[in-house]
Amino acid sequence: MGERGALLEGLRAYRLIAAMWVRSSMTYRTSFAVTVLGNLMVTGLDFVAILLMFSQVDTLGGWSLPEIALLYGLSATAFGIADLVLGSMDVLGGRIRDGSFDTLLVRPAPVLAQVGADHFALRRLGRITQGALVLGWALVSAGIDWTPAKVLLVPVMLISGAVIFSAVFVAGAAFQILAQDAAEVQNAFTYGGTTLLQYPPTVFGKDLVRGVTFMLPLAFVNWVPAAYVLGRPYPIALPGWAAFASPLVAAVCCALAGLAWRAGLRSYRSTGS
């Protein structure tokens, strides 16, 4: 089977497994609706914390509330999409410990599709909804001098950001195979990464900003392109085209995550249980 055939087979397997979990979650519709609402409210507490900060200050790191809301909305929405699609990757460690990961290896479906769709949870739509609401308000309130390039950059940021976060989820899952769990390490880069990106880069040291720009390029989810949209200088020197490099960064992250996943599978040793 060629690369294209394998991709189509993986998408088909993912769709079937995810649909099974959706049907399961929709059995009790009232419970599902309450869970989605609860998820929306809980994830919204992060933005409430930002609002509380701005009840005491006018700017944070030189950025106004609507500007930080733009960062927050981009990060939360992009991460929410990745979390919806691949957020169940953190259960991989448990499967390795109890030996059930072995059953995924012998099924006639790509392992990555099986792990990604495992325990697919529509309740995560709450995070996407909440982030999108904040983003919509920020786009109207931030006083952006709109141009066609800036208008195009908003959906590009969301799609590229979701792909970058998805690549981090996959790379983290590969590390779990090598480390025989370590879900907390993965969460530090996924959930921790989205929290970091909700604040302006000017509040962090330049060494951290360089690391998030060049080593683990989460800055291309929102910091770099959003600085262009808002007409703000980035804390470290970058060429002008860097604001439009998010799709390229996302593609590189996917390629590296794919290599890491394959290496993880090759190194896997069954628990024997």
TrEMBL record:
Listed A to Z, the keywords are: Membrane, Transmembrane, Transmembrane helix
| A Pfam entry, by short name | ABC2_membrane_6
> Carries keyword Membrane?
yes
User: InterPro entries in the record, alphabetically?
Assistant: ABC-2_transporter-like (IPR010390)
UniProt keyword annotation of Membrane present: yes
Q: Which PANTHER family match?
A: INTEGRAL MEMBRANE TRANSPORT PROTEIN, SLR0610 PROTEIN-RELATED
Question: What is this protein's record name?
Answer: ABC transporter permease
